[in-house]
Amino acid sequence: MTEHAAVIFVFFFLAEYASIILICILTSILFLGGYLIDYTLISLIIQYSYYDYVILNIISYMSSPLIEGMIYGLTIGIKTCVMVFVFIWVRASFPRIRFDQLMSFSWTILLPIVIAFIVLIPCILYSFDLIPSNICLL
To answer: What range does the domain containing 102 cover?
Structure first.
């Protein structure tokens, strides 16, 4: 019996970390620009790097689809790894709370804040005349 319990725990553990990686990939795609590269960061790296000629040669070979795909893959991989690191760091830093405490916190604190934002943001946009009104949709 004890052998099978360890296998079940391993599958649960792997599924939990697979969901963390999936959520971090989706977060990096949806909110961090996916495979797109921030060229201001690259220019700062080139400016303060001793190996600027290597970086400039890599950028000059970006016309090759293979190199371009590898750089895009590295970009989304680095963004995902940073998100996984932050996710696990936050998860390990804060204490775990019970479900009843989480539900109480959500209903008594988070829900009123969300409802206040739903009312407050449109009021601020309307009062400061920030609502875009001349958008051509066709």
So the answer is: 98-138
The verdict on 54 and 108 lying in the same domain is no
Q: Which residue has the higher pLDDT, 132 or 24?
A: 24
- How many angstroms separate the first and last alpha carbons of the chain? 65
- For 33: left if phi > 0, alpha if psi spans -120 to 50, otherwise beta; the answer is left
Sign of the dihedral through C-alpha 49, 51, 57, 62: negative
Q: How confident is the model over 23-45, as pLDDT tens digits? A: 999 999 999 888 888 777 666 66
Residues 50 and 72 in one domain: yes
Which region holds residue 97: left if phi is over 0, alpha if psi is between -120 and 50, else beta?
A: beta
114 and 64 housed in the same domain:
no
